[in-house]
Amino acid sequence: MRVVIQDNYEKMCKWAADYIAAKINAHKEDRPFVLGLPTGSSPIGVYKELARKNAAGEITFKNVVTFNMDEYLGLPREHDQSYWYFMHDNFFDHIDIPAENVNILNGMAEDPVAECARYEAKIASYGGIDLFLGGIGVDGHLAFNEPFTSLGSRTGVRDLTSDTIIVNSRFFGYDTSKVPTQALSVGVGTVTDAKEVLILISGHNKARALAASVEGGVSQKWTCSALQLHPAAIIACDEAACGELTVDTYKYFLDIEKKERL
Question: Can you tell me the distance from the alpha carbon of 68 to that of 153, in angstroms, rounded to the nearest whole number?
């Protein structure tokens, strides 16, 4: 596992955007570059920087296919809290990606189980995901894979915990009754099947989750800990998120990254 520590959120997002852009620009295969994407507050800075690079002609998304991590069950795409709306408002409407290359789970599907199976099959049809960008919750959940979700799980219907509903209520006027109680989500195994995984972790409130991801044992209690088993996992974090790491761990990753830059 690689852990890249940046001074603040802005520098973390700039580093991640530079990394993603370099991977897309280096992609020379005939097939599209397949990019997994998250929602939430963590990736917004990355999306802004990637959109800036696109506008400046530094990168194009014309040969990129995206698969989003999740979508609320029961929210139409026009709802301003749907992840379809979020992604278009924060990213897709600002870049040159073809509309047909965007893949987001359908939260209004008549058969949610069949929708999840279709999604997994479509990912497989592209040969899998090249790079999955993600964030984690304060309890370490990856996508909507709450604590104690199988680390081998695939895309499916997920029940949201009370903690997640409370945290997400800030987007629904702090009214928990308006927050959907279920979502469609890629599985932990879907994420870790990607050739590379890049996870963003920022802020003091994510410090325990970062420590669990890096220093704790692999456990269903912290689904983020599955990253330890991935051969090409990267965590990009800011200083504020490092508060629970041991000093030796913190120094180790700073030292390794310093050598990478030499």
Answer: 16
Helix (H, G, I), strand (E, B) or coil at 182: strand
156-159/182-185 β-pairing? antiparallel
pLDDT in tens, 107-141: 999 999 999 999 999 999 999 999 999 999 999 99
Mean pLDDT across 157-184: 93
State the chain's mean pLDDT as an integer. Answer: 96
Active site residues: 70, 139, 141, 146
172 touches 206 (CB < 8 A): no
Q: Is pLDDT above 70 for 261?
A: no
**Sign of the C-alpha dihedral, residues 47, 42, 105, 231?**
positive
Query: Other CB atoms closer than 10 Å to residue 30's CB: what's the count?
Result: 5
215, 142 in Cβ contact below 8 A? no
Closest CA to 43 of 199, 161, 186, 193: 199
- Write down the residue that tokens 């310093």 correspond to: 258
E runs forming strands in the chain: 2-6, 33-37, 64-68, 70-72, 102-103, 131-135, 156-159, 182-185, 196-201, 233-238
Structural domains of the chain in order of their starting residue, each with its CATH number: 2-261 (3.40.50.1360)
pLDDT at 260: 65
103 - beta bridge partners?
67
Lowest mean pLDDT among 24-33, 128-137, 139-148, 251-260: 251-260
Tokens coding 163: 């903690």
